Amino acid sequence: MNVSKLVRPNVRKLKAYEAKETPARVKLDANESPYGFPLNIKGIATNRYPDPEARRLRTAIAKQSAVKMDGVLMGNGSDELIYYLITTFGGPVLFPTPTFSMYGIIGQALGVKTVGVPLDADFDLDLKKMLAVVRKEKPRLVFLSSPNNPTGNCFSADRILKIIEASKGLVVVDEAYQAFAGGKGFTAFLNDYDNLVVLRTLSKTGLAAIRVGYMIARPEIVSEVNKVRLPFNLNSLSQAAALEAVKSKAKMRAYVKAISSERDRLARAMDGIDGVTPYPSEANFIMFGVKSPKVKYKALLKKGVLVRDISAMVKGCLRVTVGTKTENNAFLKALKETL
Ligand SMILES: Cc1ncc(COP(=O)(O)O)c(C=O)c1O
Prior knowledge:
CATH class of the largest domain: Alpha Beta
CATH architecture of the largest domain: 3-Layer(aba) Sandwich
CATH topology of the largest domain: Aspartate Aminotransferase, domain 2
Number of domains: 2
Order of helices and strands: HHEHEHEHEHEHEEEHHHEEHEEEH
Number of strands: 13
Number of helices: 12
Oligomer: single chain
Strand order of the largest sheet: 2-8-7-6-5-3-4
Helix content: 25-40%
Structural class: alpha/beta
Bound molecules: pyridoxal-5'-phosphate
Largest sheet: 7 strands, mixed
CATH superfamily of the largest domain: Type I PLP-dependent aspartate aminotransferase-like (Major domain)
């Protein structure tokens, strides 16, 4: 039997997401936090199904975000919520490029039309082109990652607002890296726009292993997306761990502060190296330009430092995640040696 003939054509064209495990002494490729969260989880009834509504966790997140609990939906990572949003509302799905790859991959997996509009020369939204596509294609969903992965910058707030205002569909502002950007982000606009959805995740602040993301939106939007959610999508261990982390505000803030100040030190140091162009970042990673990025990527890896080769997405660029001071110094030393 030819299995591939049975597969839906849109899935046949997809390649499985390669989350490659490349062993390295200094791992700065995946935008994780260098600080694991010390957790003390007790009292999990392993024989019982988890709370399908994740009530305690949602209550804590709602309180922290100054919204009501029925405006919060939990996902097994924000990836899962992207899946649920496209499952619920369909396409066309619009996003700028380059950006987080899952908007396009999930769109294709679900067989909807996806449209990518290149960012402008400063990696900001090309408002004219985005608005033209909004008018022509009438996307049901627009995904805006701000700060954007892999470029690291926030998009101009006024451009995001213009896209929200022009859209008849939903605009999802993906704030996976918001903690490192300062400010409140777009949750502040939830009362003003009924087509706004904000996505957040605990993955970038020390909890990537437990897979917890959430979306905040009008209860009418949340209750529609909730219809396609698998009943026990968030396991009990993750719910308990996330609740503990969300309640440990001071610890979380200290980690974020340490990473943000290391990012600024790292950017200044990179800026001082001939042949390296770091781009401004409000996230926990820095995109940087070098000559022959593929060669530099391999040379860094040979020295035990793993970064991300994004040169297929942004010509001449690599991306480094901010690590501990020791890790960042090891990266800087290796980078200087490879040039
Ligand atoms: C912009 C953006 N959104 C969402 C995610 C997914 O995060 P999660 O671990 O919550 O699925 C990532 C992860 O890299 C990301 O960069």
